[in-house]
Amino acid sequence: MTSTSSPIHLDLEATRHAAEVGSTVEPVLVAKDVSVYYGDFRAVRDVTMSINRGEITALIGPSGCGKSTLLRCFNRMNDLIESARVEGTITYHGIDIYGPGTHPGEVRRRIGMVFQKPNPFPKSIYDNVAFGPRVNGLRNRSELDEIVESSLRRAALWDEVKDRLKSSALGLSGGQQQRLCIARAIAVDPEVLLMDEPCSALDPIATGRIEDLMNEIKSDYTIVIVTHNMQQAARVSDRTAFFTTEISDSSDRRTGVLVEYDLTEVIFSNPSDERTESYVTGRFG
Amino acid sequence: MTEGPLSDRLEPQVASLTGTTSRRRRFLDGLFRFATIASVGVALLTLGALLVDIFLQGRPRLNPDLLSNMPSSRPERAGIQSAIFGTLWCVGLTAVVSLPIGVATAIYLEQFARRDRWYVRLVELNIQNLAGVPSVVFGILGLAFIARGPLSWGFTVGTGAMVLTILVLPTVVIASREAIRAVPSSFVDGALALGATRWQAVWRQVLPAAIPGIATGSILSVSRAMGESAPLLLLGALTFVTFNPTGLDSGYTVLPLLIFKYASDAKQELHVVAAAAIIVLLVLLLTLNTTAIMLRNHFEKRRH
């Protein structure tokens, strides 16, 4: 069951398109009829989409459209919100991540996360990167050294910090802190990286470096990124999912829905839904 | 363009820089400053006056004999040794029992409990209320259930410490919760997102960051037990005890009660002993609180 040999077929626009452009599409994460509730309030309604291996998938849409909420479902970070409840299924290589035998910690080790605000631990740079391997049971000093170095190299941070691995991570700049958080996330060797507006607290130069980094590592990691920055989605992502809000039938509160999910160039140049078009052309949201 | 309406508007503003309104506001500002400084001054002066008065009163008996002699109703032999040891026993036991239970409760309530469960809210409500219960009520409780009744431990140092533990536990929990809540949730999120279990996140991220606050808050709560007299009044501590506690089942007395006993005695000379004992109690308290501050500074320095 853990093998990748059971592709899940979903009648999705996106899958068809990918087939048309000739790339092989292998879904890693599949959301089927996913709704998320906070108490009685339904924040996201009936989302069905699949995240493909080796691609960067962008989730865009106006505030409150549920894109971050959905992202946090992919590694069960929503479990931490007491009132949150997920309906529908999310499978990772065919395994229901909300299934009875699935441990959230195991899910999160394979599906890592980078947060909106850089959140290094108040520890040394080394200890930040080594934290993940350590909680997952690695004790061997030389192996840890190796992982720390390779993770920092991958996150394009090694040259800047190699002489001060023992100094506090809080002394790094915001952009360096965010790259440290990426290094920390990839140190446990996840397959998927979820990024929740990873550049919104960074200046344009630091943002550019993070985007370069995403492009460099995308061959090894499947990336899902939530972003408010449409240029960013257009620049880095292979596929884009556009979400918007709708007044729900039961109450007058707004619920997030998935409008359109397609190859990024299609979303930005030839979207099929007019709500998508007016959003990406800047007429709304 | 320089003579336009803009300069017309600016002129009165520039004039007001030195004008009367500005002067009035500055006066009020100064007055408020003075009021706050005066408030601090009143508090410090009162404390200072008390300290000086007690010191002058107690100085004749502030000597090694005071510490080495046992309590006695004969002024020339009266000391406070067993009360010092009784106090140390009580406070020490209270700390040893209340800190683990209190911190564990705080961790549970802040990190594991679901706020939407009725029993969690009940526990929270109870802790808040218990923190405000007069201490003598805990004494009555201890008398009925610990000294007598189901446990029947008698008037022992164990009973005293147990009651003091129940007394300070709510404040230890509240102080520890504050300290734990002050740890940014992003640390926990970050740890969990790396596959850590809740316990690993608490043990490796939350507790190290919260320890300065927990230590300070808890030690200050426990030091409250040192000055507590009302509950122990009911638990057999108001006697001239001529031996130091040797175990949980020993009889005991504590400094605040011995001070009370000396001070309420008809013999004037014993009032001097009471004053000297107050100085000793204050020194002990000060030592404990200084330890709390030093611990906090030590851990805070290590964190950065």
CATH fold naming of the largest domain in chain B: MetI-like fold
Give me the count of strands of chain A: 10
Q: List the uncertain runs of chain B.
A: none
Radius of gyration of chain B: 27 Å
Structural class of chain A: alpha/beta
**Second rung of CATH, namely the architecture of the largest domain in chain B:** Orthogonal Bundle
Average pLDDT of chain B:
89
Low-confidence stretches of chain A: 1-22
Instruction: Specify Rg of chain A, calculated over alpha carbons.
Output: 19 Å
Description:
The complex is a heterodimer of chains A (285) and B (304). Chain A has 285 residues and is an alpha/beta fold. Chain A has helices spanning 13-21, 67-73, 104-110, 125-135, 141-154, 158-161, 174-186, 204-217, 230-236, 264-269, 274-280, and strands at 27-38, 41-52, 56-60, 84-92, 95-96, 111-114, 192-196, 222-226, 239-247, 254-263. Chain A has a 10-stranded mixed sheet with strand order 5-4-1-2-10-9-3-8-7-6, sandwiched between helices. The radius of gyration of chain A is 19 Å and the shape is globular. Chain B has 304 residues and is mainly α. Chain B has 2 domains: 5-61; 66-303, MetI-like fold, CATH 1.10.3720. Chain B is built from 12 helices and no strands. In chain B, helix 8 (185-193) packs antiparallel against helix 9. The A-B interface holds A 75, 77, 80, 82-83, 104-106, 108-109, 112-113, 115, 117, 119-122, 131-132, 135-136, 168, 170, 181, 184-185, 187-188 and B 114-116, 184, 186-197, 200, 204-205, 209, 303-304.
